[in-house]
Amino acid sequence: MCGIAGFIGAGTFDDLKRMNEAQRSRGPDAEGHYCDPDQGIYLGHLRLSILDLGGGAQPMWTADGALGIVFNGEIYNHSDLRKELVAAGASFRSDHSDTEVLLHAYRQWGDDFVERLNGMWAFVIYDRARQRLFASRDRFGKKPFYYTQTKGLFAFASELRAIAAHSGVIARPSPMALRKYFAYGYIPAPWSYLDAVFKLPGGCNLEFDLRSSHLKTWRYWQFRLEPEEPVAGENDQALAEKLKALITSAVNRRLISDVPIGAFLSGGIDSSTVSALAARSIGADRLETFSIGFDDPSFDESDYARRVAEQIGSRHHHRLFTEAEARADLAAVVARLDEPMGDSSLLPTSFLCRHAREFVTVALGGDGADELFAGYDPFLALRWADLYRRWVPRPLHQAIGFVVARMPVSHRNMSLDFRIKRTMRGLDFPPRLWCPVWMAPLAPDELSELFQQTIDCEEVYADAIETWESCTQPDIASHVLEFYTRFYLQDDILAKVDRASMAYSLEVRAPFLDIELVDFVRRLPLRYKLDGSRTKSLLRTAATDLIPADIIERPKKGFGVPVGRWFRDGTLPLPQKVPAGLAVKFLQDKGAAHVAGRADERAFLWNAYLLDAGGWCA
User: Which of 565, 562, 550, 617 is nearest to 595 (CA)?
Assistant: First the structure.
């Protein structure tokens, strides 16, 4: 895992050095540069050494110097691709570098070679003969890629702060990105917090022509549900065995490393399944597993993690964080963010990554399973919500909403009142807005109050609406599943894990997002994911002989911290500022209602707090 940066056009080596320095934690092991001031070409790389420790230095070039690359990520099928390329006549200089495989694959198969890759990546290839840069980001956007084009400059980097470090980039906030931040709780691609700086979406390629300065992007892959009924004679147990075999292969691919490797273990079915299979593969005595806990019992899952670790025999490391420690570390966590991200689970995820980095350089996680197998709470509310929408008259809905809003506020993790209130808020809007509104810091009408102007919902939620309306399946559950997998997974979950892990120079791998596994799951009929009130149905069946039965059937518990209670009891100070042009009184009123217990405003207050604490309100 690494950090990449570079630019074409105006600038100097000092700009490149500043860009690299801004994202130093992504690559503490080595630094490399390529500079051609006459051509205005600058490429930079920071290396976190994982594979081929002695032979993977970057920027890397083909023997004839025609192609160069800076690359961030891991290609898990690089050995198979290397064999194909050698058979086709390629000559490799490295022993087992996946970076060199990318260079020869581009030369052999052209731009379409990315469709052969199984892994996570963001890279830029400099093609001297064609005078172009070719860039690509992995299918789900696990690895970040920011870019900007202004007059006389094209620049790219792994982090937003690295882009801003170039002297030719004017770092000013994007008004639309700020609206989307409060509409979603994160900033979805292609937007970024800075005006005229963009994220290349997952599953997309980019080309920059050095002669004409023409920039274009295009999509090479999109997650889409295409369910197929099982073939005759393939019963549920056979499908479960096939699923387990695919997860096993995905885990095994991600155990390839020249440095110590471990696994996150929360005590839920996703990380427990990954950890159990990893222990079987490399030997339980060689697997390090990691969990953290909190002194608030409703947010602590450590007992479940210990039970799983005992059963699979891993070398388990548990760390209990007190509220005092969490508060003390909060400022440092926020300071490492290069873009506001309002998911409060960033805090425990950061603690977990820091804890794991004391022992390993690579960790496996369970990310992606909730999205692929319909594991989130909204899936349990879908059937009820759809019936409610069809049969409950508007006046009755308003009366019910009035009563629900007055339910006592609880700040326990995923409390009943929180879930009911969120569901009722979503039902104020058409189904295509349910997903973002269920999760949003603010409802659409509140956005207009905060920004002191009429907010066009069709514009601010355009990303979510497009995702919803492009789903070709007839049922609402499939629409919700595509939203979570195509949208929320990339721009919240994976972005959070990348920022938290790379702040501590830790590489995190996601077996559930293996492309062979994903292609199998997306073709499963919905009943294998959501069977009545049973989420992750086939996954639970596949895990039967891997982990304890009560762990398999545990309901999902979010990975969070009690920010709602912290704001109410003064443990965490209420945010005091909002960016220029936003309503300070709106912020103050929300804070007062939360402290008084009249409303649960934890999501909005946390998002506002991050802007204030991170210095984004100037």
Answer: 565
Is 35 tagged catalytic? no
Candidates 265, 185, 340; CA nearest to 559 is 265
Asked if 498 contacts 363 with a C-beta cutoff of 8 angstroms, the reply is: no
Q: Which residues contact 87 (CB under 8 A, 6 or more apart)?
A: none
Residue 434: the pLDDT is 86
Residue 610 sits in which domain range? 562-618
Assigned domain for 85 exists = yes
Q: Return the SS3 of 249.
A: helix
The first and second tokens of residue 338, run together, are 């290069």
Phi, psi of 417 (to 5 degrees): -65, -35
Measure the CA–CA gap between 9 and 516, rounded to whole angstroms. Answer: 40
Number of domains in the chain: 2
Length of the chain: 618
- pTM for the whole structure: 0.93
Per-residue pLDDT at 279 exceeds 90: yes
State how far the Cα of 437 lies from the Cα of 428, in Å rounded to an integer: 9
For residue 359, the SS3 value is coil
Q: Which of 2, 204, 435, 457 is catalytic?
A: 2
Output the CA torsion 461→467→468→471 (10° steps).
170
The Cα angle at residue 245 between residues 380 and 526, in degrees rounded to 5: 25
Q: Is residue 155 part of a domain?
A: yes
pLDDT tens-digit series, residues 417-456: 566 656 666 667 788 988 888 888 998 889 999 999 999 9
pLDDT at 412: 58
Q: What is the pLDDT of residues 121-155, one digit of tens each?
A: 999 999 999 999 999 999 999 999 999 999 999 99
User: What is the Cα–Cα distance from 605 to 590, expressed in whole angstroms?
Assistant: 8
CATH number at residue 54: 3.60.20.10
Contact 75, 254 (CB under 8 A): no
Mean pLDDT of 87-100: 89
DSSP per-residue string spanning 306-319: HHHHHHHT-EEEEE
In a domain, 567, yes or no: yes
> What's the average model confidence in pLDDT over 261-276?
94
Residue 166 has pLDDT above 70, yes or no: yes
d(CA 517, CA 514): 5
Give domain status of residue 311, yes or no. Answer: no
Please, which pLDDT band fits residue 273 given cuts at 50, 70 and 90?
very high
